[in-house]
Amino acid sequence: METVEIAGFPSPLAWEPDPVGWIATEDTLALEAGAETDVFIDPGDGTAILTAPRLLGDVEGDYSLSARVTVGFRSDYDAGVLLLWAHERLWAKLCFELSLQHEPMVVSVVTRGVSDDCNSFSVDEDAVRLRVARLGHAFVFHASTDAETWRLVRYFALEPGVDPRVGFLAQSPRGAGCSVRFEDISFLPGRLADIRSGA
Fold it and tell me: In percent, how much of the chain has pLDDT > 70?
């Protein structure tokens, strides 16, 4: 299995499954999702689609992972994602996604058996900063449009004792494919002091 090194990240990252294409430099990752790819488990009928390419690494302790995410939006639900992944029925994703109204939006999905999907706010540009952080058994999602103030998107837990991998994903559930760039990737060990302060 081919691995990827990202500056500052504490371990090599590995693909599952492979993307259509990808390029990685020190703090930038560009990847291409194939047609009709997604990671979602429908809460209505339990249908699971777990085909989107994800790049994941092992992390211990508290941390925050952030990146400026740019998406070449073409079809509904195209997205660039920061992902927490324990296993196929337990994961969470923070997405920069194109809505059915053709608005770029910050969206979060927490999956414990089935997916709990929540739209947060619209973004006027084709890029946004996303951040996922761990605080003991809990996790928090933030997003920023100006690289200064972080808006709280979601604060949640998965399961006690779970140590999920973390990384990156691109998806194109209704489209022919989607290009995503993760730039200014930053991994910081340690706990966020205040998840509601905007810092």
Answer: 99
CA distance 181 to 60: 26
Quick check: 31 and 178 in contact, CB under 8 A? no
The C-alpha angle with vertex 113 and arms to 95 and 98, in degrees rounded to 5, equals 20
Q: Tally Cβ neighbours within 10 Å of residue 175.
A: 19
User: Counting Cβ atoms within 10 Å, is residue 30 exposed (0-12), middle (13-18) or buried (19+)?
Assistant: middle
How far apart, in whole angstroms, are the C-alpha atoms of residue 83 and residue 69? 13
> Per residue in 142-188, pLDDT tens?
999 998 999 999 999 999 989 999 999 999 999 999 999 999 999 99
Omega of the bond prior to 19 within 30 degrees of 0, cis?
no
**Which residues have C-beta within 8 Å of that of residue 116, sequence separation ≥ 6?**
43, 109, 110
Q: Stretch 39-63: mean pLDDT, rounded? A: 97
- Spell 135-165 as b/e; 16+ CB within 10 A means b: eeeebbbbbbbeeeebeebbeeebeeeeebb
CA–CA separation, 157 vs 140, rounded Å? 9
Region class of 193: left (phi > 0), else alpha (psi between -120 and 50), else beta: alpha
In the block, tokens 């200064």 appear at 148
Q: Of how many residues is the chain composed?
A: 199
